[in-house]
What does this fold into?
Amino acid sequence: MLSARTIYGEIFDNDEAFGLFCSIAASGEAQGGWENGKIAALVPGSQAGLAAKIARHGADEDKHGRIFAALLRKRGLEPVAVPPDADYTMRLEAAGIGLAHTRLPREEQLTEADIVAYLAHSRVTEQRASEQMRALGRHAGDRPDIARAIGVISHDEDNHLAYCHEELLRLAAAGHAQVIRATLRATALAEIAIYRDVSLAVMAHLGRILGWPRPKSAVLAGGIRAVYACERLGGWRRMVSLRMPARRDALGGLVPAQSSHA
Ligand SMILES: [Fe+2]
Ligand SMILES: [Fe+2]
It folds into this structure.
């Protein structure tokens, strides 16, 4: 039967597929860690209170990268190169979503407008991360080591999303509401198309590794396109709403010590 659970099961049970899956995940998380770390150092004075939270966000993403790397190591696998068509963060950046990476290694302080663009990008991508980790957690139930690792990451992604809501609401109240609304809309519409394309690419790479027959790949690709159609028809709106989270100041407090938890 073709269910999400059996598909994930096939991926988890095959070393090469699992290796590619974890390598893609680890690389995306590490990239997020690098970006947040750089942005934290360039926060403008007017938003100084954000710097520690962005640094904490970056430390969490680095930790997620280490967790996926640890899952690989436990299986005796080496990370593999991420195929460019399956690189979600780089494709977003290439589409002009969020802050251009070329700006980050410089010493120039960011502006408030940059911070708005960064937070809007995070609001959308953290929603995706939070939903993906929840789905992954549901389907990894009978594999305790994977389920444990995903549980840690999932909890963090929910916190990241809560923090984005809270900070964007604060900036909206401070006069940036219109720009925030427009940036969120543009970001979400670009993200859903990139997510579709990356999902199709990842599925094609995994299908080749797992020797999926053509009809099976076609059904899965159809499913990915159907998800995009639903998102384009209105599902994207869930990625742009702003609601004060139940958990306030989710990234307040100290940056956690470096440990992989996996
Ligand atoms: Fe993450
Ligand atoms: Fe995150």
User: Anything to note?
Assistant: The chain is about 70% helix and 0% strand. The radius of gyration is 18 Å.
